[in-house]
Structures are given as structure tokens and as C-alpha cells.
Amino acid sequence: MKTTFGELLGAARRKRGITLRQIKEVFGGVPSYWSEIETGRRLPPKDNGLLRKIAKFLGIDEEVFVRAAQTDRIKKDTSVMEKLYNTDPELAWGLFRAMEDTKNENLLKDEFHKIIAALNKQGESNG
């Protein structure tokens, strides 16, 4: 039995003889995006409606498919938070509170991108 979303997606796609390009044509993105999802390098889409459409297209049980996507996202979030907590508990709790308190996910994402860019810039000037 396949255990991850990517494994379910890849197995169903190959079973039906569907290419990554065909997935891209029907659901958008680029083939490498879908390949990265299949290999676990990228998280599954968050849109449950899209997940259900993909499941239907591939002949997969929709609930199993959606649950696998949710499980993969939770595992990744937990892993990242655990690493951060082990490195800096105060920062981890601050991040957790910010994620819980914000109503605007895009605003939070934009702020994180600014922080990452500033850190990269600082690293370049130190190197």
C-alpha cells in the first residue's frame, strides 16, 4: 500500500498511462512541479477541491487522496517545527504564535520571504 501522497499520485498516474505533461495540461503548473510532489520534495496542494478533481481524474478514492495530502503536510510542518524548537525554542514559539494569530496567510508568507531575503543578503555581505 502506498503511504505518501506523492506515491499515491505517481502510482495512479502511471497505472492510467498519464504523463506529467498531461497532469500539467489539465491541472496547471509545470511537469517538474508535479514530479517534485511525487518524489516528496514539494508538498501537495492545499486546495481540497483541486485534490478531489485530481483523484477523480486518476480514479483514486477522493477521501484517501485528500487524507494523504493532509498527512504529508502535517508531517512536514511537524518536522520543521521540531527542528526549529530544538535549535531555538523561543523563536519556535514565536513563529507558532504568529501562525496562529494571523488571519492573512499571504501576509505571513510575505514577511517570512523578507526575512529570508535579508538573511541571504547578510550572508552575501559576510562572505
Protein model, in words:
The chain is mainly alpha-helical. The protein has two domains: 5-72, 434 Repressor (Amino-terminal Domain); 88-126, no CATH class. Helix content is 79%, strand content 0%. α1 (5-15) runs antiparallel to α5 (62-87).
Write the layout of secondary structure elements.
Layout lengths: L4 H11 L4 H8 L3 H9 L8 H11 L3 H26 L1 H13 L3 H22 L1
Helix pairs in contact: 1-3, 1-5, 2-3, 4-5, 5-6
Please give a handful of descriptors for the protein shown.
single chain; 127 residues; mainly alpha; 434 Repressor (Amino-terminal Domain); 2 domains; 7 helices; elongated
Total number of strands: 0
Q: pLDDT under 50 segments (min length 5)?
A: none
Radius of gyration: 18 Å
CATH level 1 name of the largest domain:
Mainly Alpha
CATH architecture title of the largest domain = Orthogonal Bundle
How can the largest sheet be summarized?
A: none
Helix percentage range? over 70%
Based on Cα principal axes, name the global outline.
Answer: elongated
* N- and C-termini, Cα separation: 48 Å
Fold-level CATH name of the largest domain: 434 Repressor (Amino-terminal Domain)
What do we call the CATH homologous superfamily of the largest domain?
lambda repressor-like DNA-binding domains
Order of helices and strands: HHHHHHH
Number of helices: 7
**Total separate domains:** 2
**Mean pLDDT reading:** 85
- What proportion of the residues form beta strands (DSSP E)? under 5%
Which structural class is indicated by helix and strand composition? mainly alpha
